[in-house]
Amino acid sequence: MKRVSIRLAICLASVLLALLGAGCKENSKPRITRINVSPACGVVPVEVVATAYASGGDESGDPLGGNNNLEMNWAFGDGGNGSTSVAYHTFNQAGTYNVVVTAVDPAGETASATVPVTVLPDSLVVEPSTNFPSGTVTTSDIVHFAAAVTTCDVDFPGVPGDAVKLSFRWQMNDATHQVYTGSNPSFRFVTAGEYDVNLTVTYAAWAVTRHSTIHLTVTAPPTGAN
User: Fold this and answer.
1) Strand partners, 202
2) Under a CB-based contact definition with an 8 Å cutoff, are residues 73 and 63 in contact?
3) What string of DSSP letters covers the chain?
4) Could you tell me which of 69, 43, 64 has the C-alpha nearest to residue 54?
5) CB 216 within 8 A of CB 189
6) Nearest to residue 213, comparing CAs of 131, 104, 129?
7) Which segments of the chain have a pLDDT < 50?
8) Which of 85, 132, 139, 148 is 20 to 30 A from 183 in CA distance terms?
9) For 107-123, what is each residue's pLDDT tens digit?
10) What is d(CA 99, CA 52) in angstroms, rounded to the nearest whole number?
């Protein structure tokens, strides 16, 4: 009976040690505790500084991962890479990029984190549109105009409230010389012809103004159309 108890105690101790070992192994896996890429938005070319804090591996090391047996690898989303805790990179093309940092420990365990970076082609991006994307309308059609405006702190119409940060001026350039100052005017051209509708957007906070044009071909409605 005593021998059975000893064996049982040894078995329980072995299980406990195994569980403790598994817990320690789990706790020693790398973890990304903080990631920062600055600036998070800018105009081409955008030079960023990417920093990641990691834990795991040799906890007596640098929390940046430089001396704690962790390899820090960066993928900037445009083909660029880095292999240091603090990485520097320049984005030369407009777009939205997912910057990924991966920490790798000597056992091959990994942890990753992602931060988006927005790279704009201009400090104020203006894209006008209408409900006639082909650019061809008739004198019986009502044309509804709209504009998408983007800066690093404006996203209209994604954020409808951003409209108050902007001023709009639509010039129809027809015989009436009609001008609208709202963001979404509607208009009917009463005379057939070719028209360049000019949009001017001003972002007063940055003292920036941009112009854009929509060309419309206006024709008479088909014979018999209501």
Assistant:
1) 167, 209
2) no
3) -HHHHHHHHHHHHHHHHHHHHHHHHHHTS-EEEEEEEE-SEEESSEEEEEEEEEE-S-TTS-TTSTTTT-EEEEE-SSS-EE-SSEEEEEE-S-EEEEEEEEEE-TTS-EEEEEEEEEEESSSSEEEEEES-TTSEEETTPPEEEEEEEEETTEEETTSGGGGGGEEEEEE--STT--EE-SSS-EE---S-EEEEEEEEEEEGGGTEEEEEEEEEEEEPPPTT--
4) 64
5) yes
6) 129
7) 1-4, 8-26, 58-60, 65, 67
8) 139
9) 888 999 999 999 999 99
10) 11
d(CA 73, CA 176): 61
Instruction: Using alpha carbons, list the distances in angstroms from residue 83 to 76, 178, 188.
Output: 11, 58, 59
pLDDT tens for each residue of 145-191: 999 999 999 999 999 999 999 999 999 999 999 999 999 999 999 99
Domain spanning 125-219, CATH class = mainly beta
Of the candidate CATH numbers 1.10.287.990, 2.60.40.10, 2.60.40.3500, 3.40.50.150, the domain formed by 29-120 belongs to: 2.60.40.10
Location of structure tokens 């001003």: 202
Cβ-based neighbour number of residue 52 at 10 Å: 29
Distance CA 207, CA 146 (A): 22
Cis ω for the linkage preceding 39 (within 30 of 0) = yes
In the chain, residues under CATH classification 2.60.40.10 are: 29-120, 125-219
